[in-house]
Amino acid sequence: MSAAEAARLEELFAGSPLMAILRGMGMERSLRLAETAWELGVEAVEVPLQTEEDERVLRELATRAAANGRSVGAGTILHPDQVDVARAAGAAYLVSPGLDPRVLDAARAANLPILPGVATPSEVQLAVSLGVVWMKAFPATWLGSGWFRHIRGPFPDVQFVATGGLDAANVTEFLDAGVRVAAVGSALEDAAQLERLADVLRSRASLTH
């Protein structure tokens, strides 16, 4: 990951410690939840690419996001050939559940920053050796918040986006453990959770001012 790629991810996630993942939700539901996320103050939205419908959703969301100075990413990038599909649909960044050097190379060739997935010290070390600074830690609730406190010892410069099982009840625990961004999904449809997520955003914003 070049300094420019890291800077683009830093800029992307600078506005909010939360990220929205819209997995397999269809067009109408995805558009509604993306708008909910944006209104809440969650700038980063990811659409996992697993079906043709997901690709259509990504394309529509990317168009709407661009009109408002926002960007949308493509997730579940498992194969290098998905990189061009994501780029053509308007993805501004990529997210992968695992660490595949071939996918990293394809993303770099397409000039798209990517968050590869890691879950062990060996994977983090390999990612660092490949020039990666920003990583997706998955599945976060299986790893536990303590994992992040321990992993920061040998890898203090790595920035983690935690995904998998997070909601309003536990995002603060993970953010307090050193996670830069915590990803949520269906929590955006729960009015009670939305209010709690808004509280998280307000409290985190106050810490940076």
Overview of this structure, please?
- The model has no long low-confidence stretch (mean pLDDT 94).
- Helix 5 links the parallel strand 4 (93-95) and strand 5.
- With 209 residues, the protein is of the alpha/beta class.
- Helix 2 (26-40) runs parallel beside helix 3.
- The protein has helices at residues 3-13, 26-40, 52-67, 81-88, 101-109, 121-129, 140-143, 145-151, 171-176, 191-207; strands at residues 18-21, 44-48, 72-75, 93-95, 114-115, 117-118, 134-137, 159-162, 181-184.
- The longest helix has 17 residues, at 191-207.
- The chain is globular.
- It has a nine-stranded parallel β-sheet with strand order 5-4-3-2-1-9-8-7-6, sandwiched between helices.
- The chain has a single domain (3-204), classed as TIM Barrel, CATH 3.20.20.70.
- It contains ten helices and nine strands.
Write a brief structural summary.
This protein has helices at 3-13, 26-40, 52-67, 81-88, 101-109, 121-129, 140-143, 145-151, 171-176, 191-207, and strands spanning 18-21, 44-48, 72-75, 93-95, 114-115, 117-118, 134-137, 159-162, 181-184. With 209 residues, it is α/β, with parallel strands linked by helices.
